[in-house]
């Protein structure tokens, strides 16, 4: 999967875009086995890192990976739409997600983004890396292989470029697509936005 998505390339760009800093509460929604959390922790020792994922076995693996890297992370079981509730009143400086939303039904994408907005402090930022608008025939054909695995109903809205509109619909401001990374499985886009306030 790492080769198929040029993981090092887009993850490196994502960490640069997030600009993690010590003391910031950063929440990785759909954290998987914790690879992005480890990169964020290495980039910003002292950042307060929280990972959310619905799969308990994946969270166990994330805990092992974080411990091996010498990082203290908080891991919570739940879906994107649970993000604000799981933080129990805390507000994040940044919420992030990578390769999650293309697998989620349209209503779930909207609900997850709304919960991530609610999880942010005023002025907080959202950062996403995921399959976005597939602009060329080649990228569309490559992404078709992802659709065979993950299902067309959930993935097609991403391929048509819906994520920025959904982010705006969840009340994010200054939404932008900041990078496009062509991969052997289609193009992965980076997005950012912010919650109003300061």
From TrEMBL:
Keywords: Methyltransferase, S-adenosyl-L-methionine, Transferase
Matching InterPro entries: Methyltransf_25, SAM-dependent_MTases_sf
Domain of life from the UniProt record: Bacteria
GO biological process terms, semicolon-separated: methylation
SUPFAM superfamilies per record: S-adenosyl-L-methionine-dependent methyltransferases
A GO molecular-function annotation: methyltransferase activity
Stretches assigned to the Methyltransferase domain: 26-124
Official protein name in the record: Methyltransferase domain-containing protein
UniProt source species: Roseicella aerolata
């Amino acid at each position: 999967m790492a080769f198929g998505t040029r993981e090092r390339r887009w993850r490196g760009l994502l960490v640069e875009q997030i600009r993690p800093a010590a003391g910031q509460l950063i929440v990785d929604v759909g954290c998987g086995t914790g690879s992005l959390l480890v990169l964020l922790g290495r980039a910003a020792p002292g950042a307060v890192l929280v990972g959310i994922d619905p799969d308990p076995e994946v969270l166990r693996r994330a805990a092992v990976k974080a411990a091996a890297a010498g990082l203290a992370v908080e891991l919570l079981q739940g879906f994107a739409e649970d993000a604000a509730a799981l933080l129990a009143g805390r507000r994040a400086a940044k919420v992030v997600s990578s390769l999650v939303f293309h697998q989620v039904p349209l209503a779930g994408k909207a609900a997850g983004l709304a919960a991530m907005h609610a999880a942010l402090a005023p002025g907080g930022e959202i950062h996403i890396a995921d399959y976005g608008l597939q602009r060329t025939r080649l990228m569309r054909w490559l992404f078709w292989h992802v659709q065979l695995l993950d299902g067309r109903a959930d993935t097609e809205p991403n391929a048509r470029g819906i994520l920025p509109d959904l982010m705006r619909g969840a009340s994010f401001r200054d939404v932008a697509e900041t990078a496009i990374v062509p991969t052997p499985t289609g193009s992965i886009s980076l997005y950012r936005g912010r919650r109003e306030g300061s």
